[in-house]
Amino acid sequence: MPPRTLAMGCPAAVKRELRDDEVAELNDNIEIYLELARAHAALDRRSAGG
């Protein structure tokens, strides 16, 4: 798939190019997900005694 595209379906088909605001929102969501993953990993380490 080309960068900055919205693809849907099975098999996937390109529907349109993503707008700048949509790309920014996706990047923000990635950061939030990574923060949650780090917090979860820290809880796992504490509960495992490490």
Please characterize this protein's 3D structure:
The structure is a single chain. This protein has 50 residues and is of the alpha+beta class. The chain has one helix and two strands. Strand 1 and strand 2 form a beta hairpin. The N and C termini lie far apart (42 Å). The model has no long low-confidence stretch (mean pLDDT 93).
Keywords:
single chain; 50 residues; alpha+beta; two-stranded antiparallel sheet; 56% helix; elongated
Q: Numbering strands along the chain, what is their spatial order in the largest sheet? A: 1-2
The ordered H/E elements are EEH
Helix/strand/pairing category: alpha+beta
Distance between the amino and carboxyl termini: 42 Å
- The outline comes out as elongated
Number of helices in the DSSP assignment: 1
- The residue-averaged pLDDT reads 93
- Rg result: 17 Å
Oligomer: single chain
**Ranges with pLDDT <50 over ≥5 residues?**
none
Give the helix level as a range of percent: 55-70%
Strand count, sense and closure of the main sheet? Answer: 2 strands, antiparallel
Beta-strand share of residues: 15-25%
Question: What is the strand tally?
Answer: 2
Brief rundown of the structure:
The protein is α+β, with helices and mostly antiparallel strands.
